[in-house]
């Protein structure tokens, strides 16, 4: 009964927030009508690429995120954490990792962070998170359910068992949701993870990692590493059996793409150090996963690359100056104590290679990677990442979706480009297990209205060399680029 009351309260609160959002659009009605008319007449540039519904959705998102007066961080965060409930053709089984008696995984991560820090980060103090139980949702396809049918009332373990009956692919996606590291939840991404599970015939382990600003870096990364080990080496009493690393693909969108790649880079660093981690009474190796899938990954935390400005008209994300010019009203969550400029990370760690992933110096030994982006503010960093991965010897499947905004598979679930993207990710994930040797590097450009595919020129993917990327990032925060970071690697 308590659970039912909580669900009803959350549903009512979510309805209230949505009504408030609609009212906030009233002053923008003239602008929206003008946008509508220009699209119908076909005289706007966007109309050449997008259908009317997509154009208006992106316009409303852009107007809301860029023009609205900032709201208190905790209020906005709370709105995105409301659970709308589970209905339809999806299994959700909620679980939580147990806390190991040893501090091995904590010490291993802190060691990796220190070993990859520059001089400023080495000298800085930052909040060191404790290991906590990390919640997650097992997600799978529920074929026999009606469209609005709720989940049956049964224990979570039984839901998991029913889900597993419908899995015909051993691959597990360890998924991290987007939301700028301070918004959203596995519940906001169920449509995407559910469709992905259906498309690949497998299951998704969607992680409820700790959010900033209350829990800044490296809290989320610690939760990600704990979740990876939970899959590999289930703690006593877990409802799942051990998952082979050959059956695990790391995945995420936006900030979740950042966390996905940060976890991958952490795994690489621990392997470089030949680290074994004490975990529930045993020393455990840190194996490579089968692959990585990053959808519109946010790599450039300080927003230094040019596409943050040049692609603004195609995207809805606010520019880097938005938060700097107008701070949200203070509340219990923000400003942080001690003060910092970035919601996610302490100032001295903004350019740490586990935070700003475009500054990672080596991706050698990375398993196959899928990356996609649109004509979005984050396009430069995604394309540079693809180029960097390839130069370091990784196999990369890259797809660029014409005229699509940031994280369109999440914000535009009905468009054909989303279904095309999910199919591509599912195909890649399945191949990492069944035919990894057949995955080859590629660059595919997908046209907006026709979904016509053309092969892109990888050599012209990015004009930025490693030196350029470092200089842009350091200049953005007013620091001189260390010579060692822009000189050739030994």
From TrEMBL:
Domain Alpha/beta hydrolase fold-3: 173-408
Keywords per UniProt: Hydrolase
GO-annotated molecular function: hydrolase activity
A Pfam family the protein falls into: Abhydrolase_3
Hydrolase keyword on record: yes
Cross-referenced InterPro entries: AB_hydrolase_3 (IPR013094), AB_hydrolase_fold (IPR029058), GDXG_lipolytic_enzyme (IPR050300), Lipase_GDXG_HIS_AS (IPR002168)
PANTHER family: AB HYDROLASE SUPERFAMILY PROTEIN C4A8.06C (PTHR48081), PUTATIVE (AFU_ORTHOLOGUE AFUA_3G11560)-RELATED (PTHR48081:SF25)
Similarity comment: family membership: Belongs to the 'GDXG' lipolytic enzyme family.
Protein name: Alpha/beta hydrolase fold-3 domain-containing protein
Native source organism of the sequence: Xylaria hypoxylon
Taxonomic classification: Eukaryota, Fungi, Dikarya, Ascomycota, Pezizomycotina
